[in-house]
Design a protein that fits this description.
The chain is an alpha+beta fold. A four-stranded mixed β-sheet has the order 2-1-3-4. A hairpin with a 5-residue loop joins strand 1 and strand 2. The chain is globular, with a radius of gyration of 19 Å.
């Protein structure tokens, strides 16, 4: 990001506000669902909407647990380890026969508790996590990113239009900053230089990252860029302008979330369904 275009560094409070707003936006959709809707199968791993929210609830619960300290968190990971890393299976076992409405209420309560815990946490202490530890400010943004990304499975399955605001900047920034990680995670050398990224925000503002380059850049909608780096869309299913070898290579493997390498969805496999 060039110095002239760099946004003010958000505070932890601002990041937590964005997480709360992301949760509220998804809650407004989930509150309208019937019990049969909760059993609808999404385009992500054949998870039901119930499984998607169970995953968000579990990872928010993990966040709430790690605020209590590394030992409670390690104990939780040990219990989860009995499921060989299958978080969906653990969530189904942990949550049992909760109805969609009951799961919804649990998720809302724990997310609120997580946000309150992040506000009260020492802003300079890194919270333990399966990947690198994160300070509360970054932790809140990571939770916002996951809530936004998994929300697409629900919006797509229901065939709903989704509105956005400029809190998306948090996710776009993570997407840009994980350029090197996307390659290193696959044991590849990141091609240099990092592409220039010019995005149009939901408000119409321009968000610009890295040094300007006419032959190595990505231009277009911030929403579509965030869809690609969170792997909810294949780049070919967007209108992003991708120029140059580093930019093209990046969009083929972009992954702004922690964990082992994950392949993006195949072209044409993720998108809104008819209601």
């Amino acid at each position: 990001m060039t110095v002239a275009d760099a946004p003010d560094r958000p505070t932890a409070s601002a990041q937590i506000d964005a997480l709360e707003a992301e949760g509220q936006a998804l809650a407004e959709v989930l509150a309208t669902l019937t019990e049969s809707d909760w059993q609808r199968t999404t385009g992500f791993k054949d998870w039901r909407i119930w499984d998607v929210v169970a995953h968000l609830h579990l990872t928010d619960h993990m966040g709430l647990t790690t605020i209590d300290g590394p030992e409670p968190f390690k104990a939780l990971l040990k219990r989860m380890g009995a499921f060989d890393g299958d978080m969906a299976a653990y969530a189904r076992d942990w949550l049992g026969d909760l109805s969609g409405r009951q799961l919804f209420e649990c998720w809302r309560r724990v997310l609120a508790e997580l946000c309150a815990g992040l506000r009260a946490a020492d802003p300079d202490v890194r919270l333990t996590w399966p990947g690198p530890g994160m300070k509360p400010r970054m932790f809140a943004t990571a939770r916002q990113m996951e809530t936004w990304a998994h929300g697409w499975e629900i919006y797509d399955e229901l065939g709903l239009e989704r509105s956005h605001d400029d809190r998306l900047e948090n996710i776009a920034t993570i997407g840009v900053r994980t350029y090197g990680w996307s390659f290193a995670n696959r044991k590849l050398e990141p091609p240099a230089p990092a592409p220039y990224v010019e995005l149009t925000a939901p408000s119409g503002r321009q968000w610009c990252y890295n040094e300007p380059q006419s032959d190595n850049r990505i231009r277009g909608s911030a929403v579509e860029f965030c869809q690609v780096v969170t792997q909810v869309r294949h780049v070919e299913d967007t209108a992003l302008e991708v120029q140059g070898e580093p930019a093209t290579a990046w969009m083929a493997v972009a992954q702004c979330f922690a964990g082992p390498p994950v392949e993006p969805p195949k072209p044409g496999t993720r998108g809104p369904k008819s209601r």
